[in-house]
Amino acid sequence: MQRGGKILKKRVAVISAILENPEKVQFEFNKIVSEYKEIIRGRMGIPFEEEDMSVISITVVGTLDEINSLTGKLGNLNNVVVKTSVSKKELDV
């Protein structure tokens, strides 16, 4: 990917999200995630029905801008806690 003549490197990242009261936020959460389908490599969700929570892990390969944009949008949702781990290694893709 290029921006202003510079080649932007991609990185692997894992976005972890906890949805509290998932029935109230899952539609908007999934809508945002689908906007980034081109960088998503995998997704795993674990429902905690008795606790009224869901834990979701999303593995992505993208530029730091793409990763930060997705993380920021998800983190701005009510009842969603998000943390992201990004690889130090840059990929030549």
Please tell me about this protein's structure.
The strands form two sheets. The chain has a four-stranded antiparallel sheet with strand order 4-5-3-6, with helices on one face. The longest helix is centred in the N-terminal third of the chain and has 14 residues. It has 93 residues and is α+β, with helices and mostly antiparallel strands. Strand 4 and strand 5 form a beta hairpin. The protein starts with a strand and ends in a 7-residue tail after the last strand. The protein has a single domain, classed as 2-Layer Sandwich (Alpha-Beta Plaits).
| Name of the CATH homologous superfamily | ACT-like. Chain A, domain 2
Q: Secondary-structure element sequence?
A: EEEHEEHE
The shape is elongated
Mean pLDDT: 93
How is the largest sheet built, in terms of strand order?
4-5-3-6
β-strand percent reads 35-45%
Distance between the termini: 8 Å
- Our count of domains comes out at 1
Secondary-structure content class: alpha+beta
Q: Give me the count of strands.
A: 6
CATH architecture: 2-Layer Sandwich
Tell me, what is the CATH class? Alpha Beta
Number of helices: 2
In which range does the helix fraction lie?
25-40%
User: What ranges have pLDDT less than 50 throughout 5 or more consecutive residues?
Assistant: none
Query: Do you know the CATH topology?
Result: Alpha-Beta Plaits
**Main pleated-sheet profile:** 4 strands, antiparallel
Radius of gyration over all CA atoms, rounded: 14 Å
